[in-house]
Amino acid sequence: MQRREFMGLVVGAGALALGCGNKSAGGASGSASGAGAGKGALRIAVIPKGTTHEFWKSVHAGAVKAARELGVEPLWKGPLKEDDLKEQIGIVEGFAAEGVSGIVLAPLNDKALATSVKNAVRAGVPVVVFDSGLTGEEHASFVATNNKVAGKLAGERLGKLVAGAEKKNVLLLRYLEGSASTSEREAGFLEGIGSSEGVKVASDNQYGGATTDSAMSASESLLLAQGADKGEVAGVFCPNESTTFGMLLALRKLGLAGKVKLVGFDASAKLVAALSEGHVDGLVVQNPFQMGYLAVKTMVSVIRGEKVERLIDTGARLVDRDNMGAPEVKELLHPNLAVWLDE
User: Fold this and answer.
1) Reported pTM
2) Which domains does the chain have, with CATH numbers?
3) Which of 39, 45, 176, 178 has CB atoms 3.0–4.6 Å from 75's, for a disulfide?
């Protein structure tokens, strides 16, 4: 995939356009400064796993808020698809060679990015990791959800949802091998569901892949293989936005939405709508806006030589139809990104 880097600076009248309108086919977008950023400002590269899911748009907005407050220039660039490891490695290495002030990275793979991060740090470019873990000790801090605890929340909830089912078989559709964040959620789910009496995990070794299309295809095959259409499956857990939505589409296609209990991870407008209508029974929701905000703030502290925590937990909560109307939950489900992003 050809990488193209765009640089755009929009300051004034309280408006900040960060990468919007500058998106390339490879999912990369350019830079923008926070209010007050000028010549000689710190330049912070923020590299997500991908640029299409709603989760990353919230991260993007949080990064902009921190940049505005601190007067630094954020450079937002990531692969279009969340399985383009080569692209992400190239972006990290490109920013390191450019000599940016720091790199904030959500690694696609917990091992494959380790060498690139090590080389960046050796070249004098500090790195803060967010969202998903990375092997090694070179990065200055890790800003993320406690994913195992969050996955356990999902497992405990699904266990309660299927407690009255005649056949208590449940399925786990995994995301991608090598993704530390989702692997931890999957492990937490298995631990949580394990405390539910009589519940059996009928399948836990299938992967949905990085896109909604691949997840829908894998979901349909999994559901049919396990006899969901014959009443053999009571519930399903999916560990991220794309797998959850892919599973939802498969359940709808098979006429099983609302019958097979679905607990997913992360929120988008379509998933929240499905939660309202009863086709999704629970969503473990992170705070991606806070994640992007704290990741950039932490990086600036590192550059300034201030002490930072090695691990910063940004929290997660289980959202269902009973609590989705609460003000604090509505803020998580419907963030006002337009304040920070020109979309």
Assistant:
1) 0.82
2) 28-145+287-314 (3.40.50.2300), 147-286 (3.40.50.2300)
3) 45
